[in-house]
Structures are given as structure tokens and as C-alpha cells.
Prior knowledge:
With 80 residues, this protein is mostly helical. It is 59% helix and 0% strand.
Amino acid sequence: MKKRMRNPYFWIGIIGIVLTAMGVSADTLTSWDAVYAALLQLIHNPYMIGSVIIALVGVFVDPSSKGLLDSKPMIEREDE
């Protein structure tokens, strides 16, 4: 999990999930007021909040391990 959180592409994916749930498109980002309005719509919509939470769980959970935690590597590599 720590390695993922240090990866900038991980955060780009998180931002993409939230923006998609907000229904943001290129024409939505024309002003800060429009971004703020889209954020308020997200906060006031339980379905959209649930969608973001479900998507975030899918990003954070390691599919190759059992449960919610990452699996422990058998051998630690020196370059990591």
C-alpha cells in the first residue's frame, strides 16, 4: 500500500474516480464556481458518494491478496 501511495499515477487515478463521480467534463472546469458547484452536487448525492467509495475500495484493495490488506512479499528487493 505504501508503494502505491508514493506513485503519482495512483493519485491521478483517484482524482479521475472522483471527477468522474462528480460528472465533471472539460466544459465543467471553466471556472472555480463551476467546480465548486459540481463538488456540492457530489456531496449532496448519496448515490454518487457511494459510487466514489466503492471505486476507491477497488483501487486500494490488492486483488492478489486475501482480505483488505496487501500481501507481504516473500523476499524484500533492495531496489524497493
